[in-house]
Amino acid sequence: MSHFIKKLWTKWENFWWAEADPRSVKATRIAFGLSAMGVTALRFWNIDLYNEKSLTLKADALNLLDPYTKPLFSWTFWPDSWSMAMQIILFVLLFLFTIGITRRPFIFAAWVIHIGFMQRNYAASMGVDTMILVFLLYLSFAEVWKKNAYDGLSRVMFRMIQVHLGIIYFYTGLEKLRGASWWEGSALWLVFNNTQVTLWDLTWIAHFPVVLAIFAHMTVFFELFFPLLILNPRLKFLGLGLGVFLHIGIAATLGLWGFSGLMLSQYFLYIRTHEWDSFLIWFNLLKNRPILRRALIKPVDIPIK
Questions:
Q1: N or C, which end of the chain has less CB nearby within 10 Å?
Q2: Which pTM was predicted?
Q3: At what angle do helices 273-287 and 289-296 cross, to 10 degrees?
């Protein structure tokens, strides 16, 4: 029994303290940074929603919220006349984050400014802003600028992102099960039939109701079982592939490129070192097969005992 508990504890420790691959961290940092910069850049054109011209006064911004979800205090520490300056600072901080010239205090400062804008006018915030808030908080405690040998706190934060992403998908799937349209397979048609949110005229899809139903059920299946797919090494890339397919579809039909980019940016953290190495070998095989073949058949000197 003691051996089993010790083995279980070792697996638990390895789960939280496993070393992250630098390539995964770098890819996550760049993809997340670019997506966050693209989303926050839109605020430059809507800055009047967050300054003295806003219909919501700064003093009343939090009081308009439900008392059960109202924050204890506001992170919007700057006056409304500073809104454009704070937006520029936030954009610069995200740019420094993306290129890897940053440190934890600067990343946390970007998080503070971002949540400050959200609390200044919650009516102007969207789900993509919440995703930036969640992932940026974790990343503010991680050494995303380093090329290797991350400290323990960084490794725990990378794992927390993976766990939190699984919870987000699972809870979203549970919420979909409460809607009758997802059970009957017509949920996607309700979206595609709304020309105000789609980029293209997708009403022709009504001629393929079976396809719509299959995609609707696949979406629910993916979200509910994403945590289990990720935990299984043999099914992990199936889960990631379904996620890529889902978010590219959302971006291509609804134009939510920022949201899709933010969600997909965290997928890189699921890729481990040996999987990166296998991919590079496969890529080199396609790119330069003669060189790889000579490398594979290169004789190895075996010492004679």
A1: C
A2: 0.87
A3: 120
